[in-house]
Amino acid sequence: MREVRERSLLAPKVSQLPDAVWSRLYFDLKDYVAPCAADGTTVLTFYHSVIGAVAGAQFAPEERQARHARLAQLFEKQPPRFESAGKSTVNARKVSEQVFQQVLANLSASAAASLASYAHLEATLAAVGPIGLLESFDLALSLSRLCAGGRTTD
């Protein structure tokens, strides 16, 4: 968004890409990305893992970690459940992404707090069941061991 603001000084301040910019970006990238179902929604992923690896290599490790921290913050702000018309729905994206992003951002204390939170545990259990809940702990533990070379930032 910073780059959009820098290029369009007279444009109104917005917190997300305007539809016209998003449309142009999508059509520029459409040959390289594909829609993919994830947690009850559609996300974009690269057609081939090599493209994703090359794109990821464009960022220095500190910048990748900062981007994971930004994503972790985004998911931390979201509720574990959505309430609408008296119906409660698990926020499956938050459940699957929050701790993952916290660990990759090297925010181990935040990840541990999320995993110990009753609201997070209950939502994860409702979304993926007991085996999925255990798998999320295993994934967090495995990722934290891989990231253990660096210091934690929280």
TL;DR?
By secondary structure, the chain is α+β, with helices and mostly antiparallel strands. 61% of the residues lie in helices and 13% in strands.
Task: Tell me what you see in this structure.
The protein is α+β, with helices and mostly antiparallel strands. The chain has a domain at 61-149. It has seven helices and four strands; from the N terminus they run ααββααββααα. The protein has a two-stranded antiparallel ribbon with strand order 1-2. A two-stranded antiparallel sheet has the order 3-4. α4 packs antiparallel against α5 and α5 packs antiparallel against α6. 14% of the residues are buried.
N-C termini distance: 26 Å
Rounded mean pLDDT is: 84
Radius of gyration: 18 Å
Share of helix among residues? 55-70%
SSE order, one letter for each helix or strand: HHEEHHEEHHH
Question: What oligomeric state best describes the polypeptide chains here?
Answer: single chain
3D shape = globular
Number of strands: 4
| Computed structural class | alpha+beta
Strand order of the largest sheet: 1-2
Largest sheet: 2 strands, antiparallel
What is the overall number of helices?
7
Task: Present the secondary structure layout.
Blueprint: H1 2-7, H2 19-29, E1 33-38, E2 41-46, H3 49-57, H4 61-77, E3 81-84, E4 87-90, H5 92-104, H6 108-116, H7 118-146
Antiparallel strand pairs: 1-2, 3-4
Helix pairs in contact: 4-5, 5-6, 5-7, 6-7
